[in-house]
């Protein structure tokens, strides 16, 4: 790098930081509104509905994270940046709410915040491209996929059947994979690793039929299959000797690696504008093999339903 090129590099870095800051602050304000609104929701339900809303701790952590990140971003001088006609990257972030089982194999459900980033488009030096600039449409052909999943903690007081067992800490999985998209279908496979929590490998594969009634709307429907390593299976479905001794209602159980769930997903994405949109999905998974035979599942349910809905914000980076 020559001294002549250094000012231009510093200018590019400044533009990138400013763009990320402005976009992130807008989206963080929106997330905080969701968190405040969700915390005030009062959902009276019959005791037989098996729906528990343990929001307080999760919402406090969500609001604290938003406040801390917003404060950090405020330390950087802000300034609007003009949109780039040919971005180097397009990142979509989602914030919303979800309803899912309290833990793997549970027959009780809980609601909480939902968030995720996704790389929709990347243009590498030399003109190599992955993804599509115009969401919600997708680039035809092969493409890289990013993947992340958060798994909440499992506590002995989550269900009477777990009394005496050890707490299972929350986990965060990050990974990537490969997908192929055609005009009216797509298929993908991803691998993730538990960078926080279970420190194990998991995999997910799926395929979708794609329906696009308009340029702004994309609907997907298709099967899913989930795989877990021995460490993952033991963490969420195994019962060790100490747990079996402390919880006599549960027999000792040592699961092996393999497929643990198969299911289906129905989802939709709608773009209100080039930057804002809404995304939702309904899912069903059936625990199978060792996951179905686990005493944890036997005390709960093999059938796992899920629902998520959120607002998306697209960030375009041109550097």
Describe the secondary structure blueprint for this structure.
Layout: H1 6-40, H2 56-74, E1 89-101, E2 109-123, E3 129-131, E4 141-151, E5 171-181, E6 185-196, E7 201-214, E8 217-228, H3 230-237, H4 241-246, E9 258-271, E10 276-287, H5 289-293, H6 295-298, E11 303-317
Antiparallel strand pairs: 1-2, 1-11, 2-3, 4-5, 5-6, 6-7, 7-8, 8-9, 9-10, 10-11
Features:
319 residues, elongated, 24% helix, 6 helices, single chain, Outer membrane phospholipase (ompla), Chain C, 11 strands, alpha+beta
What does this entry look like structurally?
With 319 residues, the chain is α+β, with helices and mostly antiparallel strands. It is 24% helix and 41% strand. It has a single domain, classed as Beta Barrel (Outer membrane phospholipase (ompla), Chain C), CATH 2.40.230. The protein has an eleven-stranded antiparallel sheet. Helix 1 runs antiparallel to helix 2. The two termini are 17 Å apart. About 14% of the residues have low confidence.
CATH class: Mainly Beta
Known CATH architecture: Beta Barrel
Q: Which stretches are poorly predicted, pLDDT < 50 over at least 5 residues?
A: 38-62, 64-84
Radius of gyration from the CA trace? Answer: 22 Å
Structural class: alpha+beta
Which strand order spans the largest sheet, edge to edge or round the barrel? 3-2-1-11-10-9-8-7-6-5-4
* Helix and strand run: HHEEEEEEEEHHEEHHE
* Number of discrete helical segments: 6
* CATH-defined topology: Outer membrane phospholipase (ompla), Chain C
The average pLDDT value, as a whole number, equals: 79
Total strand segments: 11
**β content, as a range?**
35-45%
Sum up the overall morphology in one term: elongated
Rounded to the nearest angstrom, the distance between the terminal CA atoms is 17 Å
| Percent range of helical residues | 10-25%
Indicate the multimeric state. single chain
Report the biggest beta sheet as strand number plus sense, adding barrel if it closes: 11 strands, antiparallel
């Amino acid at each position: 790098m020559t001294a002549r090129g250094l000012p231009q590099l510093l200018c590019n870095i400044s533009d990138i930081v400013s763009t990320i800051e402005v976009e992130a602050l807008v989206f963080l304000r929106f997330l905080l509104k969701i968190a405040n609104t969700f915390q005030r929701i009062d959902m009276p339900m019959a005791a037989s509905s098996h729906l528990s809303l343990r929001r307080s701790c999760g919402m406090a952590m969500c609001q604290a994270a938003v406040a801390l990140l917003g404060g950090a971003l405020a330390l950087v001088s802000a300034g609007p940046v003009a949109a780039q006609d040919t971005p180097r990257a397009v990142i979509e972030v989602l914030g919303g709410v979800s309803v899912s089982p309290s833990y793997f194999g549970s027959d009780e459900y809980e609601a909480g915040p939902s968030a995720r980033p996704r790389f929709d488009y990347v243009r590498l030096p030399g003109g190599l491209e992955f993804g599509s600039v115009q969401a919600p449409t997708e680039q035809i052909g092969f493409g890289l996929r990013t993947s992340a999943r958060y798994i909440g903690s499992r506590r002995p007081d989550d269900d009477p059947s777990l009394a005496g067992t050890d707490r299972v800490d929350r986990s965060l999985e990050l990974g990537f994979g490969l997908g192929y998209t055609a005009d009216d279908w797509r298929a993908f496979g991803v691998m993730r690793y538990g960078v926080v929590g279970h420190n194990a490998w998991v995999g997910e594969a799926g395929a979708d039929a794609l329906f696009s009634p308009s340029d702004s709307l994309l609907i997907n429907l298709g099967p899913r299959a989930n795989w877990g390593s021995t460490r993952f299976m033991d963490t969420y479905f195994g019962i060790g000797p100490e747990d079996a001794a402390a919880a006599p209602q549960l027999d000792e159980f040592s699961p092996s690696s393999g497929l643990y769930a198969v299911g289906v997903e129905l989802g939709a994405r709608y773009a209100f504008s080039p930057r804002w949109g809404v995304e939702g999905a309904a899912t069903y998974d059936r625990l199978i093999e060792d996951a179905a035979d686990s005493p944890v599942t036997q005390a709960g349910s093999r059938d796992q339903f899920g629902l998520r809905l959120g607002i998306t914000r697209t960030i375009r980076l041109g550097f």
